Amino acid sequence: MSTEIENEAEGGTGKGLSSGSVGLLGAVVIGMSCIAPAYTLTGALGPTAAVVGVHLPAIFLVGFLPMLLVAVGYRQLNRAMPDSGTTFTWTSKAFGPWVGWMGGWGLLAATILVLSNLAGVAVEFFYLMLAQITGRPELADLAGNVQVNVLTCLVFMAAACWISYRGVETTEKVQWVLVAFQILILLWFAVAAFIHVANGTAEGGLAIQAEWFNPLGVGSLSAFAAGVSLSVFVYWGWDVVLTINEETKGAATTPGRAALATIFSIVVLYMVVGLAVLSFAGLGDTGVGLNNPDIQENVFAALAGPVMGPMAILLSLAILSSSAASLQSTFVSPARTMLAMGYYGALPRRFASITRRFQSPGFATVAAAVVSSLFYTFMRIVSEDVLWDTITALGMMVCFYYGVTALACVWYFRRSWFRSVKSFLSNLLAPLLGGILLLMFFVQTAVDSTDPSYGSGSQIGGVGLVFILGIGILLLGVVVMVTQYYRNPSFFKDRFETTELPVVD
């Protein structure tokens, strides 16, 4: 097993993926599509502004920091050992097969959770779009019909699976169109909002001030916690560019550059749109004010008309394309993680199978679609609140596997920490701070979520449903891991080398 991983470090994949298929810009596009800025912002702007007020831009910057620190660690690990298994492979190499398996499980759990939610959001905006186009508002209510909702969701899931099944090149081509469209509309929206503010026709009409960018002005630890929570939700997804490293031109360097470029591009976009929304809408608790609880779950639906007038439907289309794009590109991560786990023996060998025609992890892609579809169907039938609680639990999974991966970087390169200033910053300080921050948030969220009022307020036996889902998913991972140990003990009994990888500065 360790020999196979060392072969990966030398550049040979052996997995059968289509190498050299994606360039730097294509990888950034796939990364941005997975983050889904239009879909993310419409649900995150309202609740965050309600917590931090005019310091919304500062919170975007606070949330950006741990993602940047962790991305540095990812870049260093990828430079030394490009492998589609990313978290699973790297943590297995650093800390052994048991921790590595659970790191991979955390990534799989997070992507499965978000796939089901993305499909649900796509369904809602699909019927909203139909209602706007036809002028028949009753069509929007079809999303509330459980049978219609689930059936439509399964169709979307199947379409996204089909595109992913056809390989990363097809994925890239589809994402160029969807990502370009949503970014264009978001920038159009922002410019239109700023024009309204300049003309005095904005409902809020707030002038941008330097204090908005001061994180110390937030004034409470809970608001800073909200910033970290926001970072998990609004920035998560950039690591997809690392999972396609074996299919990228310049596998050792391009994915790391793409990850950093994706994060920087996203934070700029978020700052522009966030400032536009805050300036236009203000913080009132009526109308389009961001403290109005009636609009907080979908800010753009309320602001589209006042800001864009008759072109408001384009914003609905942008959010639909955003959720659809992310639904499709998110398939990349679990499929390639399961491929690597199957390749190294952590999952049944069937998961390592590659389609000859498309050179993609066909079986793993279909498996991800089936599990996500079953999960969504079950959760949608049980309760809509349960579905939203799963997204809160998603934050726990992301903090867990990002944090573990960052610390794996620290441990890999422990003998090179003080060889140079650059090595100290990139191999020790940045990933260590990022990993500790996210793991602290994981622990804090686990503790807070035991409260029945956490999340939607759903509970079982006096314990918050978010805690039950989050910890329950991790415990399920332990059960699956132990089962796999008895089915194929060779992976777990293999002695991983825990010395650091080749030094990279």
Automatic annotation (TrEMBL):
GO terms for cellular component: plasma membrane. PANTHER family: AMINO ACID TRANSPORTER-RELATED (PTHR42770), MEMBRANE PROTEIN (PTHR42770:SF7). InterPro entries: AA/rel_permease1, APC_superfamily. Keywords: Cell membrane, Membrane, Transmembrane, Transmembrane helix. The chain crosses the membrane at residues 20-42, 49-74, 105-130, 142-165, 177-195, 216-238, 258-278, 299-320, 358-379, 391-413, 425-443, 463-486. It is found in: Cell membrane. GO terms for molecular function: transmembrane transporter activity. The lineage of its organism: Bacteria, Bacillati, Actinomycetota, Actinomycetes, Micrococcales. It comes from the Bacteria. Its main location: membrane. This is Amino acid transporter. It is a multi-pass membrane protein. Pfam families: AA_permease_2.
